[in-house]
Amino acid sequence: TQLLEQSPQFLSIQEGENLTVYCNSSSVFSSLQWYRQEPGEGPVLLVTVVTGGEVKKLKRLTFQFGDARKDSSLHITAAQPGDTGLYLCAGKNSGNMLTFGGGTRLMVKP
Amino acid sequence: EAGVAQSPRYKIIEKRQSVAFWCNPISGHATLYWYQQILGQGPKLLIQFQNNGVVDDSQLPKDRFSAERLKGVDSTLKIQPAKLEDSAVYLCASSPGHGETQYFGPGTRLLVL
Predict the structure, then answer these.
(1) pLDDT value at position A94?
(2) Which of the listed residues A95, B4, B10, B101 has the most CB atoms within 10 Å of its CB?
(3) B102 touching A (Cβ < 8 Å)
(4) Contacts of A90 (CB under 8 A, 6+ apart)
């Protein structure tokens, strides 16, 4: 069974601060995705990273895939209250099945 | 374009009762997924359909859970009988094909008392 561990589980910060969320596994994934889920809604895909060492930027969000394709990080610069939500990483294996991490619940206070 | 539709949005039942959830995927999407998301955890895949055939149901508790997608479009997930530990959000997702980007519905929040 492939497991993805996310840290921290909870994060409460002030508006304007920076933060990093980590997603770690002992397994290699063909690709890794990051989702954001708001209360009462389903997860929404933010980005997919495929190549080891790949870095993708989405406005104030920077996503990195580890060189060995076992881990990933999400960095948010100058967080805003609108960034509040549950951030989920999900790894895709060779069978194209998604395995989700436990999530990081982020609260950004104004 | 309409997203994935799910109903009901909320359901409260007593243990040992039965419950059914419905999902209508995005039009034209061949692949449909049901996930279980327990509070504080990430979604766990229960079953995946490709058109009206099952691709993977290895994590579906088949003694009490069943799912069907008879005409390859909408799908139902049933729990019979429900247990307290089935309390969770049940998410439906669809994708154009196997392995492609998944689009999630809003989920059905189930509380078993």
Answers:
(1) 75
(2) B4
(3) yes
(4) A4, A32, A33, A34, A35, A98, A99, A100, A101, B42
Query: What pLDDT, in 10s, does the model give residues A18-67?
Result: 999 999 999 999 999 999 999 999 999 999 999 999 999 999 999 999 99
Q: Which of B42, B56, B106 sits opposite A97 (nearest CB)?
A: B56
Q: Find the largest Cα–Cα distance for chain A.
A: 43
DSSP string, A78-99: S--GGG-EEEEEEEE-TT--EE
∠ Cα A97 A102 A105 (to 5°): 130
CB pairs under 8 A between A and B: 45
Mean pLDDT of chain B: 95
B61-111 per-position pLDDT tens digit: 999 999 999 888 999 999 999 999 999 999 999 999 888 899 999 999 999
Is the dihedral angle over the CA atoms B82, B36, A104, A3 positive or is it negative? positive
A103 touches chain B (CB under 8 A): yes
Radius of gyration of chain A measured on its C-alpha atoms: 13
Whole-angstrom distance, CA of residue B71 vs CA of residue B69:
6
